[in-house]
Structure formats: C-alpha cells, structure tokens
Amino acid sequence: MALSGILGGLVPGATPSVSVLILTIAIGSLTSLIVYRAFFDPLRSIPGPLICRITSLWTYWHSYIGDDCSKISQLHKRYGPVIRIAPHEISISDGAALAPIYSDKGGFMKAPCYANFDIEGHSTIFSTRDPGHRAIRSKAVVPVFSMSNLRSGSDTIEGCVAKMIARMKEEAAESRSASKTSGQPKPVNVLNIARSLAVDAVSSYLFGQTFGGVSEKTDKMSANGYVDTLVAVGRFFFLPNFVFLALEMTSQKLWPDKDEDESANKVDSFVGNLVQGSAKDDSTYQGRLLKTGISRHEVEVQCKDLIFAGTDSTGTNLSTICWQLAKRQEVYAKLQEEIAEADARDPSYNPQSLPYLDAVIREGLRVSMANPTRFPRIVPPQGFDFESSNGQRFYLPAGTQVGMQPYSLHFDPDVFSDPFAFKPERWLNDPTPEMQRDAIPFGLGSRQCIARNLATMELFLAVRAIAREKVLEGARAVGEKIELMEWFNSKVKGEKIELTWQ
C-alpha cells in the first residue's frame, strides 16, 4: 500500500496530504520536546541517563518491578550525588540536603503523587498535602503518641508482647519437634507473627480494642491481605493521580482477589464497629478525631490507614531484627547479657536506656528498609540552591520534584562502612554526625511518621522480651538475605521472613 494511503487511513475523512501534515507536526513536536528536555531544559546541567531526561517511563517501570531504589543508587554511583531521574524529577543522595528539603521551615511541600495514598476519597494524615487539613487532625491525636503517654500505656503494649512471645515459643517448639521426628525443622514465618503483634499493639493502645492478630494461630493473619493490597499500591505511587485511579479501577474489575476482599472486609468491620461505638472524648484515637468534628467515615479511614502503616512497617522491622539476631548469635548473646544485668539492677528500668539494645534497634531500622524509596517534594517558588558535601553547586528551579531515598542514605559506604552488614556496634562509641543525620527510617521533619514513638516502643519492648525469654536460642535464619520489592512500602518477596529451631 502506498504511504499516502496508510497516512490517509490514520485520520478518517482526511485527504492524504492532510494526514501527512498532521503526522509531520506530531513527529516534529515530539522531536522538539525530546531535544528540549535533553539539551535546553532548565535541568539540563543535572547529570543523568539520556532516557531519564526524555521520559518518566524509566522511573515508572523500575518502581513497578520493584528495583528502582537500587537502580537509582547505581545511577548515583555513576553520576554523583544529584541526578536527574525523570524530565522534572531530581534524586539527591547527599545527606546535607535532608534539612532544607524536609525540615527547615517545615520543609518543601509534598508532591502531588501522595494523593495516590488517599483512601475512599479522604486524604489521610499521611497523604494530605494541605498543611491546614493535616494540622487539625494531627493536633487532635499527637498527644497519644507522646513518650509520657506511651509510658503510661506501656502495660497495654507489654500485654500484646507477652502474647506474641507465647506464640513464638509454641511455634519454635513445633519447629524443633518436626526436626526431631523428620530431620527437617518446620519454618516459622516471623513476619506474620511480627505483623500480628503490630496490629494488636496499634489497636489495643490507640483504639482501646484489640484486633486479635496474635490469637489467630494461622499461617496468614486475617489483616495481611488488606495490608498487602495497600503495599502493592506503592508500585504505582509515582504515577500522576488520574493514571493511578484508572489503573486501580481497571485492576479491581479485571483481577479481583477474593482473599484480599475478605481481609479488607474484616478490617472494615473491625474499624466500623469501634468507631460507631466510640464517644467523642480523649480516651481513644478515634474519639479524639470525632471530638474535632471529623465525620465518622473519615475517622474510619484514618484508623484503617494507621492499621496499615503500623502493621506493615513495624512488622517488617521487627521480623528483620529477629532474622538478623538469629543469623548473628553472638549479637543475640551480648544483648541477652545486657538485659539480664539491667533486670538484676532494677526491673523497672526504661529499655530505651540500654545502649546495646538501642544499637540493635537502630541497626535493625537502618537495614530493614520498610520504606526504601524517595519521599518526593516540590521545590518552592524561590528555587533550591544546593551545595553538596563535595563542593558542587546545583540550582533547582521552582516546581521541580526532588526526593531522597533511605535506601541510598542507609547503604552509603562513605557513611556506614560495610553498609549491608548488620553491625549494631557501629552505633556505640560516638557514631558520626553523618550517621545520625542520614538514618531516617521514619522520615524527617514535620511530616515524618506520626506514630514513630509508638513503633519505637513496640520494638524496644518486643526485642527485650525476645532476648529476656531466650526465644531465639537454637534459631537459624532461613535464606542468605531478605529480598524486597522496593516499593514505597517494601514487600518481602514471598511474604515470609522465616526462622527454624533445632
């Protein structure tokens, strides 16, 4: 077929000459856009691969397949601390940029893609970009996360930990029994157990009613499907919101998941009942939000968001620490020794006062990568003039999307020697200012995780109990490493972090 005939078919009713003109204009416009982005854009001086200068598809694809954090870190090694990863997006791996982007004067505004984490039409305390919208809600609930209130309510969390310890002992005994009878110890998924503790601690302490995850003696806790569904949202986190919504709607229609729906219904029912039965008072998280005048439906959404975030991140962090302690029994033994000595001196001590336990928790948070990817922000109207630690200067114009990822910071060999190794000792004997600065497991600034104190207390109480009760004696870590899908909330491949006991 002649070219004119093909082109004529592209625009029904148009003559071949008109179609040729339209196609020529389209190709010319695309070529001009590519040339502009590659060589004339205001960000042209920022180094990076040519494909990233031209299109965002590179970042979207690697985010989807779950390796964008490690890929971006490789680009930083090649191009330097400030790189262009999309036509209008910059990644920075130099910790000197943390303060101006995330904390100084409140930091830069969150990027529009945070709307992809809205739930049922409501912006959550995490996802909202409007400081005023967030302020009303965060002001209502921030007091429950204060260290003084957490210490007052620590018995509730300790009760959840005690149930988790009992379950771990039961499953460890089953693993040993299988080893004796068949020669093959039964693997125990500590990720599932840690998630069960996390959802119970969040619900018991904040909502005044336990979800009962630890009591579910199953291979997969009933809330896991709901949590995993929201984790999977992270692979599309950086997409424009209209594209994200279209994909979300399409996937729900074409690939419904019965197990995930049942899990979501379980969480919906739990949250709906506790919110509908709550008074507008200060005794619970949901009561504080209701007292502010927020609708019951939005309060349910805020509670579900907290269940998701608290269950996923703390579950990943705690199970990773258990796996690392089982792999390094000499660290576990040293931890047990410190806790035994503290118990003998004063059983009422604050576990966060123990230096080696603190080092274990810090190191666990550094390597677990519960949230490995960048936290995108938008450069304000005055622009961003940044001087890196090596003396290079970069100017980012207003409207540029810029972010820093914990993966690059936590695994920077110039800050953390042998960065992929679990070495609590690195936090003893005066860690460097760069180490203190660059470890950001809960984010940074006014928009960091609102529940960080609760999550930290859970970890201290749980890890102390695991050492005190000798739960990991004879435990062996399954696998050489924990493999992750590097989404906004990382997904453990296979959804298992396993130990065996012999």
Automatic annotation (TrEMBL):
Matches recorded under PANTHER family: CYTOCHROME P450 (PTHR24305), P450, PUTATIVE (EUROFUNG)-RELATED (PTHR24305:SF156)
Pfam families: p450
UniProt-annotated binding residues for heme: 449
Alphabetic keyword roster: Heme, Iron, Metal-binding, Monooxygenase, Oxidoreductase
Name assigned to this protein: Cytochrome P450
Keyword Iron carried by entry: yes
CDD domains: CYP58-like
Recorded superkingdom: Eukaryota
Cofactor(s) needed for function: heme
Molecular function via GO: heme binding; iron ion binding; monooxygenase activity; oxidoreductase activity, acting on paired donors, with incorporation or reduction of molecular oxygen
UniProt organism field: Oleoguttula mirabilis
Keyword Magnesium carried by entry: no
